[in-house]
Amino acid sequence: MYFHDKRLQYPVKVTTPDPLFARQLQQAIGGVEGEIRVCLQYFFQAWGNRSPNTKYRDMLLHTATEEIGHIEMLATAVALNLETAPLSLQESTAAANPVVNAVMGGERPRHVVEGMLHKHLLSTGLAAFPGNSDGVPFDGSHVYASGNLAADMFANVAAESTGRVLAVRLYNAAHDPGMKDMLSFLIARDTMHQQQWLAVIEELGGYGEQLPIPNSFDQNLEKKEFSYAFFGHDKDGTPPPAGRFTQGPSLDGKGQFKPLQSEPLGEEPVLGPARDGSGAQKEQIGKPSGPAVM
Amino acid sequence: MYFHDKRLQYPVKVTTPDPLFARQLQQAIGGVEGEIRVCLQYFFQAWGNRSPNTKYRDMLLHTATEEIGHIEMLATAVALNLETAPLSLQESTAAANPVVNAVMGGERPRHVVEGMLHKHLLSTGLAAFPGNSDGVPFDGSHVYASGNLAADMFANVAAESTGRVLAVRLYNAAHDPGMKDMLSFLIARDTMHQQQWLAVIEELGGYGEQLPIPNSFDQNLEKKEFSYAFFGHDKDGTPPPAGRFTQGPSLDGKGQFKPLQSEPLGEEPVLGPARDGSGAQKEQIGKPSGPAVM
Amino acid sequence: MYFHDKRLQYPVKVTTPDPLFARQLQQAIGGVEGEIRVCLQYFFQAWGNRSPNTKYRDMLLHTATEEIGHIEMLATAVALNLETAPLSLQESTAAANPVVNAVMGGERPRHVVEGMLHKHLLSTGLAAFPGNSDGVPFDGSHVYASGNLAADMFANVAAESTGRVLAVRLYNAAHDPGMKDMLSFLIARDTMHQQQWLAVIEELGGYGEQLPIPNSFDQNLEKKEFSYAFFGHDKDGTPPPAGRFTQGPSLDGKGQFKPLQSEPLGEEPVLGPARDGSGAQKEQIGKPSGPAVM
Amino acid sequence: MYFHDKRLQYPVKVTTPDPLFARQLQQAIGGVEGEIRVCLQYFFQAWGNRSPNTKYRDMLLHTATEEIGHIEMLATAVALNLETAPLSLQESTAAANPVVNAVMGGERPRHVVEGMLHKHLLSTGLAAFPGNSDGVPFDGSHVYASGNLAADMFANVAAESTGRVLAVRLYNAAHDPGMKDMLSFLIARDTMHQQQWLAVIEELGGYGEQLPIPNSFDQNLEKKEFSYAFFGHDKDGTPPPAGRFTQGPSLDGKGQFKPLQSEPLGEEPVLGPARDGSGAQKEQIGKPSGPAVM
Amino acid sequence: MYFHDKRLQYPVKVTTPDPLFARQLQQAIGGVEGEIRVCLQYFFQAWGNRSPNTKYRDMLLHTATEEIGHIEMLATAVALNLETAPLSLQESTAAANPVVNAVMGGERPRHVVEGMLHKHLLSTGLAAFPGNSDGVPFDGSHVYASGNLAADMFANVAAESTGRVLAVRLYNAAHDPGMKDMLSFLIARDTMHQQQWLAVIEELGGYGEQLPIPNSFDQNLEKKEFSYAFFGHDKDGTPPPAGRFTQGPSLDGKGQFKPLQSEPLGEEPVLGPARDGSGAQKEQIGKPSGPAVM
Amino acid sequence: MYFHDKRLQYPVKVTTPDPLFARQLQQAIGGVEGEIRVCLQYFFQAWGNRSPNTKYRDMLLHTATEEIGHIEMLATAVALNLETAPLSLQESTAAANPVVNAVMGGERPRHVVEGMLHKHLLSTGLAAFPGNSDGVPFDGSHVYASGNLAADMFANVAAESTGRVLAVRLYNAAHDPGMKDMLSFLIARDTMHQQQWLAVIEELGGYGEQLPIPNSFDQNLEKKEFSYAFFGHDKDGTPPPAGRFTQGPSLDGKGQFKPLQSEPLGEEPVLGPARDGSGAQKEQIGKPSGPAVM
């Protein structure tokens, strides 16, 4: 079960509120690369963890719990950036006036309605919501918890990699020192989170032990002649580019990479006529048709 | 641009059609772990690839093109498994009759409507569709193409890991030898696909060069004291479990792992009263309110 | 504006309630081929109709209004079919008991929870909801109202064609005479609705006048050498099958059909290196990178 | 069944078309707080109403029918506001030119493409669609019809409360007198609709009779020691804020409010090892693994 | 920020695992009436709370934090109920065998694949996921946080009312004593949660002070003649049913209820011809058309 | 199976990159009218084609394969248009400066962040993604493959009609000659694609043979008195507008059109009281209630 402390994990300060930056921050809350996703992902991986011991369940719970606090920081940052957003279209006009802009020292007029998420104005009362920077709501199907520990660890690395890419883009886009400071903390945490999931793979013996995923399936049951072949699909048979993936031992040490031009091994599939009573046109059935006969 | 051969990449045969297995196969077509997702993922990574050379763009195109053929194989397998599915509720009754079952040797009655996806009966005319095994349509937001090569490679490993886990579960669930054969091919291809994306990371210098992702961000700008610390969030301060992720050098060789009990570094956030005209209750505003004044 | 009469457009009677048929009827309410879709589609086409006169706006309003009554009929049918559905898993057991089934004359046990939509049990209290037969909620993006009258008419024909296919499949699946009677009415209405949208195309001059859609674009601005060519994409250049679409005058009378083997007319696209500060890996950029420099 | 009158329920006039306001109005059509939602919600509550009499079914039908007319008014308002929207990016440029703006008296340039919903330009031909102000399509899962009358009434109050908040925000954002007039009507109707659903609760005996919802469940079967306790979850045990919800009789008159520090009453859950053949890593299973053995 | 204790808030025990009940429990996790929704709803209401003081922000944080623990309990219950679920279609057959059923004392065979969520088998490895009982993923648009305190309180009452209705239905459907015990706790908490949000309305002065929502809008700006009128929409003018909502003082004490037959107050809307270059048919435009002229 | 050629089907050139046009092009990639939809639609129609011969399966495969190349062209166009998009909010400011604009000859400032899709900046690294111009992800439920050949052909005509309308709108909006050239090719292909699906209907005997769809259902089983009647739903009985759809022979030659005022043929539906244990309020049940009794 869970507890809270009313203080934030890290300070969140905004000197110059910017509703457009509020919009961009939404991606880090409810986007595919965002914090709600990793928070729920780590929780569901922990809650469904089946293993002879609880070590990784325990580990996942710590980080999942941390992530709630990250959503909280970002939601606070969104609200602070919306502090002075325009409530009417006229208010927006005034701010967008070139003369006003000149007075503001040539800076981007920050109060223009045009670039805002309308949900911020119309639905949340100048606050954050669980959706992305284009207003698309968070979707739980992005929560990967496969029941396979190694697959989950790579899904977590992928999430933290796209997450840190996003945080860096937000850092680059930001102009407020408070926002840059907050992001420098979140970027550091993403650095660690990338590391820690890969450390689990290493701790369990690395690629040699863990690959292919799932490692509990007997590889003798797969078509092994295709297990380490890079298939070329160029129309004219031009071979694929040479690289680590076309030569040398495979990373799991169980095979040798090789290139192979892909050719059809199967036949043209023919499904035959449609069944009577299946709702097809009669030409598909090949004879008069009616309601299904039992 | 693209070309086709009417033959399949690998044979698809079904001896005993099973509409329930048709349902399960849908997960490998339109599910999160399925082939439409990886097909579009590799295509969009290729088409958006920005790089001094086109090596990885080229590599991605080969594998993306292969994946279209995998969707085709699975869609064919779904149609073949639906060959004898019941079209009416009465037809279902007959098959579910215990006596009939007994004659069938105690096997599971395969023609019961109860377990089928109704979309197979009502919307597709006994054929596949781009959705998962519970009928949820494929959703393009699962296509990861981040513009960062390393993040994309890990996203691909994650996709192929959950993809092979799924294929193994389908193999274990299957009873038809043709289906087991088809899956033994797809499993082998997933083995290779896991390898090839990791090979790109190795080719580019491995974790030391590629981590943290993105490696183009100056780490001096992140809060480095938190970059390699595993945060404990246990209420009573019980330390997190010891592991590779709490001790030793980090995997990128740029820091030392350490455990750290998480404590609030920020303050309680206070947003203050709501603005006049923002649609809040007057008690939130603290004074009489009306339409926005410009 | 709108008015109601508490009576139904057509009688809805259920003699033998069947929760599984209730599930199947949901497809006709909230599925892609269902009545909510056509109802909203005709309404939005009417409300957005721009034309020198209001004839088609008026026509659309009549049929849109009719469709509300069809949703009502189907929602009533769902509720009646759920009348005796099991509320507990034990209740389900009793009904599924082979002995009980035998007493019921070998009929399909109708009260099994397994095949039901759980939303019917858990969320609606044994009533209909705006979603399809696999529980996926209705999605407004299926409402086609393009602002182009001819495109909309064809979208309406498509909707009524898949709609009547669905209604026929439900008729074939049904066993209750009341349900078959209700469906025989809805099927008749779908017959008319297919006709009426095509009649608009004919009234406006038929294919010769209305195609290609939109007919307000000057065809001299399109690459006319490709406007009536069927492109073959077979890898080995095997020509496409001969048919009405590869020979003879085009249906709009403005060209001649011909087959043509597709070949690349463009070059391999090369996007070049990623930009500094864009969140790519440094290897993609080709030089050291940092925060965006303004 | 249903009928229409071609006239609107209330006049809709636009003097100065504004494509950005058209965008904002979409929230009242297809947003979570919008009219499609309440229209379908009241219809499905009516059509599924199970009760000894039809009073509330009847009441719901009246208001649901009214709501179709509200969608119609708003769709008309959107089309009128899009009357002069730019069709090309160049057209937009001209209007955004500072000099032109100056001539227009410093007003917000109304014809800028930047702030528009692109769906209005590209997909609807300058007309409304069933989606929200950020382009997200209407989603039928927001239609609450639970089969419990009191739960539905509160869901309706919630819908009309957020609906009137939205209408007030639109009123505040609007600059056109016709739009303000139309909204003043819709706001009045929302006032009534909030009242009427609460009046049903009162008519049925108020909180004392209707709470807790559902009132048909025997409260002796719930863990009554926790039924009126406000749980504190502060990490350091700081008690929750004192308020009406921590003291005095409960609103249903069946208990006394009290604060209570939450503590774990359960144990740490341990799921144990994964099953053989379940697709987990072998380390999770604890022994060699293969295909499922029956 | 947040902390965890590895123990559960309340015990979760399962004696007889039932994969079908696991499916039903999913509705309480990721369904519209479920715990993820209320958890995020209370968090976002707290994090965006704008008010002269932090009392309700604080209150919301306590309950939001409690809800994480409820998701955890339910996810644990799902995993335990999936403990013995069949991994292959053959395994399912054996369990469905009538003879086996007879030995099991006529009970419902609990291990049939037909009724299971395939996501439980294929995607999660016999564990919970953030979606509902028909497999539809959790969707963040259900998180209501409007920026208006009273609207939010009613949204919370609605959520806890449908939530308790769901919990009661699950209690009625359950057969395992451990599951009934767990639900008796969750039902008690829902009782309290319904109360506490209504207590906030009372604390702020009740309906007289808080209605209509938002109370910060000057009612003189709305069309007050329609603010307390129940509109009848019967085609033949049959008046609406008499009730508390058609007579007597309104609940806010600011008006008198009355019934009123609805009549069109507006005109038939006419949008006129489509614009040149807008992609309409030329018949809609009324003259020859081409690319947009600037 | 499938093969690729690295060159594009048709040249894609961009002289003046415009991130706003990149946004608009997304509609043609991942929108309802876009290329991913038709590509998957033709593939799934082909893969599920049941017919005495493979002619139309073959035909569909050619065009589906062509469509992959169209997605590729558009994705390339998006990436090229994002070439110079601003990465920071400050960069945007500079470009939006009126003085800079003046120097640019009064043209629309192309680098403003306000109008961009934030997903292009934050999630894709200046490249395309499978979603529409408002950022909504592609949704597989738009792929129509009904199992009925004629219904599918009309669905294809509808898709290509809205597709060509979209392409024309993009052509009109475009300012770059390379973009206009690319679109002139895609518009020509849409011309052909509209034709070819209608040619199939003609080849199969035209409306007389193919309508009503499905033509395999015995029309004697439908309520034929309503099969060719246009129902009027005007409240006051004003007849519907006269047109081809109210008079003359029906287009299938099987009936005569006629107008008919719609009247209720059914009764008011009454569902009766709620069942005990169904989670309704006790007032709905009409007596004391509790847990379901078995």
Layout of strands and helices, then pairs:
6 copies of one chain form a homohexamer.
Chain A: E1 2-4, H1 19-30, H2 35-47, H3 55-81, H4 89-96, H5 98-103, H6 118-122, H7 149-173, H8 177-203, H9 206-210, E2 229-232, E3 258-261, H10 282-285
Parallel strand pairs in A: 2-3
Helix pairs in contact in A: 1-3, 1-7, 2-3, 2-7, 3-8, 7-8
Question: What does this protein look like?
Answer:
The structure is a homohexamer of 294-residue chains. Chain A folds into two domains: 19-208, Ferritin, core subunit, four-helix bundle (Ferritin, Up-down Bundle), CATH 1.20.1260; 218-265. The model of chain A is unreliable at 93-111 (pLDDT under 50). In chain A, helix 1 (19-30) runs antiparallel to helix 3 (55-81) and helix 3 packs antiparallel against helix 8 (177-203). Chain A is mainly alpha-helical and 294 residues long. Chain A starts with a strand and ends in a 9-residue tail after the last helix. In chain A, strands 2-3 form a two-stranded parallel sheet. Chain A contains ten helices and three strands. The longest helix of chain A has 27 residues, at 55-81. The interface between C and F is large, with 115 and 115 residues.
